[in-house]
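Worked example 4.2. Below are the chains of a multi-component assembly; read each line carefully before continuing.
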Amino acid sequence: MTKITNIPIKIQDPSTTKTFIDKFDTFLFDCDGVLWLGSHLLPLVVETLEYLKSVGKQLLFVTNNSTKSRTQYVKKFAGFGIHVTEDQVFTSGYASALYVRDFLKLIPGQDKVWIFGESGIKEELKLMGFESLGADDSRLDEPFDIATSPFLENGLDPQVKAVIAGLDTKVNYHRLAISLQYLLNPEIQFVATNIDSTFPQKGIILPGAGSAINSLAYASDRTPEACGKPNLNMLNAIVKAKGLDRSKCCMVGDRLNTDIKFGETGGLGGTLLVLTGIETEERALDVTLEHPAPKYYTSKLGNLYEYTH
Amino acid sequence: MTKITNIPIKIQDPSTTKTFIDKFDTFLFDCDGVLWLGSHLLPLVVETLEYLKSVGKQLLFVTNNSTKSRTQYVKKFAGFGIHVTEDQVFTSGYASALYVRDFLKLIPGQDKVWIFGESGIKEELKLMGFESLGADDSRLDEPFDIATSPFLENGLDPQVKAVIAGLDTKVNYHRLAISLQYLLNPEIQFVATNIDSTFPQKGIILPGAGSAINSLAYASDRTPEACGKPNLNMLNAIVKAKGLDRSKCCMVGDRLNTDIKFGETGGLGGTLLVLTGIETEERALDVTLEHPAPKYYTSKLGNLYEYTH
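Applying the procedure described above to all two chains together yields the following structure tokens:
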């Protein structure tokens, strides 16, 4: 375990808030647990985002949730009365599609992708011109039978060059079995949207993307390349797309092992942990944890508005 | 990797066969890949088993398949024209039920077990007087919804003291999510029938019990106690139940990392690898493998009959 020498600064009054805000020109926000909890908007979030915009800050949104596309995310924001544009939103599904195209060099219109996951990944791939298989195809909802699965009938699709796996609440043996058939071919790349072990929802802890992905990893004896936070592929893609100066950026999140690790290992100027998600003040201050401590922490994002008004 | 100094002996003629058979009074057989492949009986298996019985050998059957109960297994044998009784059959589901009762000391009629797996586990628990929840309950086939799941409606069942997880081709998010809720309580024991990563069926490789179990292990950050081969809990239970002299026993199987490891680390007098399942002669002779080599190997079980008649 690494000894952390910098004690996180608590933002709890107008003076610490002003100093904090002045240090950065771009804020990257995790969404669930920071802006909202599922379908419940957290207090003073709209006011805080409006305020930061009004003082000239750039706002970006970075989520490991791959079930929705960026277009669907923009709609979710709008439903809360927050106006954002698609180019402000980065999802792990989008990051995975970028990885497949820009790093693995798969060719749109020629190479295909098998998806274990929901529609968010498929939509991002489609926008890049990739054909995908699997995902929410309703034929995969049928019980698995080797003799009748339409995905085995004429053999596997030889144009599939990568498997992208993410959170899929429609997980079943059919989806796992066909995904495994592709993964048994070592020439087909194995990409994970993210490896979060859990997915907090409405006060309970549900299995996260990493849970089913680990199931595929164990059966195939392979390790996927994970594209979401804390993997720096995602941060590098954002920095490049927006031409960011890392030293002037602050990552705001509710998870130490994804959001804060992402900001700290990615060399951002700052990280702010909010306590409206899964972490506590005790954990924020626990200097013996294996992952980096945040530079700042505060009870809720809305404090940035509350202490300046 | 361990250097293996004993080269496996190939059974390939009457003389090696006779010497082999004479050394043992009990043979423990894995089933799938040894006696049959799915619903297809392998050649001379009935004749071999009849012959071994006729010369006074005790025959036991040890399988990691937890989807069927011992009663259902006896019927499967009967369908192939092989008469065996329930007390000759040991499944990983039965081993898990024994573990819960005899090692974890759960009390039948009082403590309950949550099952992630098929009916084989439930039936074995029921025979011991345990009430179980989960498994093939058709309400778990419904899509998961926190608000409507009948398994969350009145909270978790406080009488549940263990989760047993095994192969479940009805795996879905509902089953995974509720199993996880129980596993998040560290006082509830986590038991796995077996951790086979794959499940060969009709010439293709499907996800094994260990695949979904690993998904639960990752989400809950826990490691289950695995009861099937190669875990010695199962062997110890068999040795105790049948009063066996280990030096006079031979384990016959088609997998090096489960069957042969089970026999070798369990101190049995012999192990016989047959090549009708997943292993090859090359692997049988690969002395640099991390798991123990078999003492004997032969192309098929039926050779024991063929070379003596």
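Take a moment to check your reading of the output against the notes. The two ends of chain B are 41 Å apart (CA to CA). Residues 106-226 of chain B form a domain with the Rossmann fold fold (CATH 3.40.50.1000).
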